[in-house]
Amino acid sequence: MAFPGARQLRIGLTGGIGSGKSTVSQILANLKATIVDTDRIARQLSGPGGGAIDAIAKAFGANVLDASGALDRAHMRTLAFADSEARRRLEAILHPLIGDEAERQARAATEPLVVFDVPLLVESGRWPAIVDRVWVVDCRESTQLERVVTRSGWSEAAVRAVIDQQASRSQRRRHADAVIYNDGIELHVLEADVRSLWKEAIALAHRE
Predict the structure, then answer these.
(1) Which domain holds residue 137?
(2) DSSP per residue over 19-69, as a string?
């Protein structure tokens, strides 16, 4: 879609589990950015009757589906963490479908700023080449642990296992055009930081 006096600017938003990426995404949505949530797309594709279900069942067997016909996410999470090859097979099914739907949503955007919310942006290897800018939501690992344990009830060991599977803080920061530090600050401060980046991005979309 064309935007009078502007071009579409694509932002890749990422951050480790518990970093507060979803909060930042919501702030950007409130500022009228178009949010393309790849986690939500993945859940739709792997839900009952989703576009990836037949391929997942064929690759892993019907026992990875729950009673509703959706992917049993807890079962698959356990399998994927135990077997890197299983994780790669699942990604080979989901990632192309996620990419197609994400592109469809971006093309339908009515605002010049499109934010691709991608938890594993750095790990994927493909998203940095698709977006114009990468914004990383960052905090200490101890803060990640505390937040996820509090909200999910997972054990610290379970949360640590997820963190260890993700890119490190330093790896994400190396890919970042901007780092949104979300640790030990009030929500209004985080909102102000995000608004400042949003204004810069809107100005860039109108300038380029």
Answers:
(1) 8-33+111-202
(2) SSHHHHHHHHHHTTPEEEEHHHHHHHHTSTT-TTHHHHHHHH-GGGB-TTS
